[in-house]
Amino acid sequence: MRVVHVIARFNVGGTATWIANLSHSLVEKGHENYVLAGMVQSGEVEDVRFEAINGIRIGKLGRKVTFLADLQSLLEIRRVLKRLSPDVVNTHTAKAGVLGRLATFSLGRKRPAVVHTIHGHLLTGYFGTGGTLLSTGIERIMSRMTDVMLFAGEKVKLDCLAKGIKHQKYSYVVMPGVEISPKKKRYGSKVTVGWLARFANVKRPNRVLEIAKELPGVNFVLGGDGPLRPGMQLDAPKNCKFLGWIDPKDFWSQVDVALLTSENEALPISLIEAQLFGLPSVCTPAGSAPEVVINEENGFVANSFSSLELSQLVKKLTSNAALRRKMGASAKKRAKKIFSLEKQVTDHLIAYTHAIEIRKGIKDA
């Protein structure tokens, strides 16, 4: 099977890790795999794995919506697809999902099968009312033209289905495969809480500062970068440290509790990585995050997005070493079982095979 992935840019983050791990697993099982991506934007860093997974640069493609550049990207994607002649095109993220699918549909009756993965929907936290309605309407139309829809988590799927974003018959939940080799943990004199994400509004990094101010006796480390970071550093309390872009192994090795403050999420890979380090987590009830953090089993899920409630849950863990060890052990055991590379590639191959069968008329669309 020859698979081509299309994504707007291959920046350091959860989606790039998802695609990189899936790509390596597909190749190990004897399939061909390519990744089409544009350029990262200011404040981001490209994932160094791009070339290793047969990355192909689409020069004008990027996160920002620009009519002329996007049209050029669509035509370039189409040319690459014609040259590679894949069996399956798997598009990822909103903008690349539209351009990649339009390019594939334009190839006519002999086009490849089309699979689209929704890693995190745009229904909350990204746009105002008008932008949300527009993006939802576009995806509602596109999803009905797509052979198979994949959703990163049950909650993300249910949210999208409620808005009419679905394939009429073939919609699947898929989990990321995460593999990380923990380094020996470095324990300091104070308990340390870690937050690893993009400094963007939807991730609500400001909540970390609010929580840190409530818990002055706890250290907080923030990994990642983005447009909000400079301003946040000026307003941060003394118990906050900013580490910039950092390897997850180096980051989680110095942390005792993982924290997620997002307004909107799919399946947060950063928390899965933390769990493989044996760390308990505290998170908001965003998207499918509660499918990673099982409340009162391997961490705590807040009932709201309140910084005060999050700080109270963080305090429960930072003040109780025995509870951290118990929940951390549970987190590691579950993560190794649920988020394995083997399960990820098996689930995707099932979906890809179904999509190909739909195109060949073996299955009804």
Write up this protein.
There is one protein chain. With 365 residues, this protein is α/β, with parallel strands linked by helices. The chain is 41% helix and 17% strand. The protein is built from 12 helices and 13 strands. It has a 7-stranded parallel beta sheet, with helices on both faces. A 6-stranded parallel beta sheet has the order 10-9-8-11-12-13, sandwiched between helices. Helix 5 (154-162) links the parallel strand 6 (148-151) and strand 7 (171-173). Helix 9 (269-276) crosses helix 11. It is globular. It starts with a strand and ends in a 5-residue tail after the last helix.
Distance between the termini: 20 Å
Characterize the main sheet. 7 strands, parallel
Structure summary, number of beta strands:
13
Please give the radius of gyration in angstroms: 20 Å
Numbering strands along the chain, what is their spatial order in the largest sheet? 3-2-1-4-5-6-7
The total of helices stands at 12
Low-confidence stretches: none
- Give the helix level as a range of percent: 40-55%
Structural category = alpha/beta
Which word captures the global form?
globular
* H and E string: EHEEHEHEHEHEEHEHEHEHEEHHH
Summed up:
With 365 residues, this protein is α/β, with parallel strands linked by helices.
List strands and helices in order, with pairings.
Layout: E1 2-9, H1 14-28, E2 32-38, E3 55-57, H2 67-84, E4 88-92, H3 94-105, E5 113-118, H4 129-145, E6 148-151, H5 154-162, E7 171-173, E8 192-196, H6 206-214, E9 219-223, H7 229-235, E10 240-244, H8 248-252, E11 257-260, H9 269-276, E12 281-283, E13 299-301, H10 307-318, H11 321-338, H12 341-360
Parallel strand pairs: 1-2, 1-4, 2-3, 4-5, 5-6, 6-7, 8-9, 8-11, 9-10, 11-12, 12-13
Helix pairs in contact: 1-12, 2-3, 6-10, 9-11
